[in-house]
User: Fold this.
Amino acid sequence: MLVMIASRGYCTDIFDRLCILAQSLLPNSVASIMMVDKSTKLLSVTSAPSVSQAGHDALANLKPGPFGGSCGNAVFHNEPQYVSDTFSDSRWKDIRHIAVDFNLCSCWSMPIRDEDNNPIGSFALSSFEHRSPAPFHKKLLHTVASIVSIILKNRRIEKRIKLFATAAQNAAESMIITNEHNKIIEVNQAFEKIYGYTEKEVLGHNPNILSSKKHNEEFYTQMWQSIHNESKWTGEIINKLSDGTEITQWVSVSAIYDEHDKEYNYLAVFSDLTELKKSQKQVEDMAFKDSLTGLYNKTKLTQFLKSDKEKTLLLLNVNNFSYINTAYGFDVGDKLLVSIANLLKNNFNTNHTCRINSDEFALLYYEDIDIKQKTSDIQDFFYNKEISIDNISLNVSFTYGGAYAKNNLLRNTALALKQAKERGRNTTYIFNQDADSIDHSQRETFIASNNILHYALNEDKVIPYFQGIRNNKTKKIVKYEVLARIENNGKIVSPNVFLEPARLSGLLPEITKAIIDKSFEVMASNDYIFSINITEDDLSKNYLLEYLNDKSLEFGIQNSRVILEILEGVSATGKKNHIKQLNKLKNRGFLIAIDDFGSEYSNFERVLDLDIDFLKIDAKYIKDIYKNSKSYEITKAIVFFAKNANIPCIAEFVHNQEVQDIIEELGIEYSQGYHFSEPSANLIE
Assistant:
């Protein structure tokens, strides 16, 4: 057996030989080796030369366990199992049929363990007679299982060694191994390829045959001191190829010790710094350069701005660039950006030109320049410059933001560009510290509001307020609109504070869900009709139909009691999917109301397409209707349309009797406002 193992024979041959030897020591028996499959955790026969193929098949994929036979129990308990009567022993309960079919009267099994003493298989002697093992047989089982463990361990080690050897041989870095006398005994393929020497030419030589003579004796003395004292040395070295060409490399030398902790080999790994430096440059380009134009990107710009000196920064936004992409395609758009980048870089004496966004460029100057004059020069240049892309002639223009400062330059310039965009295309705005610093304070307020929003959602502090809606015929409040509020440290926060942060953070649906949950819970104890505001974000998430149905079932709310108030802008410009959702909600029995009608779109056709149940007239026409003839006429026209379409109207912002008198005069069915009901956490009749 030792000879077979030493000669690295096939495992199957060795295992078969072990089984034959073992069963020869127990007359009228067969031996088997079973192993656990790592993926399935099931046992199957690895070797059983005296067992028929039918026996192999019967023993395939056995599950280790208390009733899985001798081998199943040996692996399950990680202990030897000696079964003298397989026909009655409970340990063979699940596979008794195998014992009967193959007349296996007794079976002794020993777990095969790995180096961590975990069971990975079993070795068994199965007899055609009912018998118990003698101490000799137990020793035999233990010995064979140990030999199998040793063989498997050796095979794993050999596999790892082969893997490492293959990796070293095929590594991109050149490698040299020397003996204790520092004579080369091994080189890899990369060494031959890089240095131009064959293995035969360097074996037995000192590695100093590669020396370029660029390093003095002290250099090598320090190298060997480090190797002897710390077992390693790393550093940059200049060597010489076979043709005399010099090569700069980063070298790592390690000492390899024998079992007596004596240095007996040295491994040197050479990395070509040319490729390394090229890779470093590629990484830097990826991190700091725009892949399309080759200009520095926003990350690099922020580094340029970190110095303590005052600088001028211009931001240029290409006008109508999205139209160019749409009209001519992205390929033309990309080529146009490359042309713009080159023109900006080469014609305006910048210290740095950057592309910081898809259609936004930055020009940085390390001095105080005349921003107005510079933007005028750029305007004139591009006005007279026709750019040809794929036989398409294009002229481009920009909107400009500029600032001169030491700190917060990018933020200030971005604020200036925002101001310029709001004033119209082709305009220039220069940041003014006194006039524009308010934007920063607004930002701080926005951050505070955003924090309140997240706190409210995490701590369940979003609460519903209810405002009554009066039936102008019965003179009673018959409906309620549910309004979102936040409770923060005992104070009630209005939507004006948190709705915009919620919209920008994508959290409007979370507020809507919270309001649905809590308003349904309140309305479960009465029969009022109530309305809930739905945003375009809610429709985009496509969750409303399922969510509302679930809540209706949970709280026993009839769908016909729920009005979904949709902003007019959503109903008029929403995607087809939004309209489809609203119609599905309508078909399920939910009511639909258009909120703030007349505020923005006045798309009367869309209202009819939606088959809405209520039309809420925008508050800006109602609040001054008693003194503003324009508001009166617009409201009158809306009411006329609604009555012809048989759609009841709700007037918002009814704040005094004068307004209410006109509402009743126009025949508006419902009134909502402080004159009848202020928003409250409780329902007020």
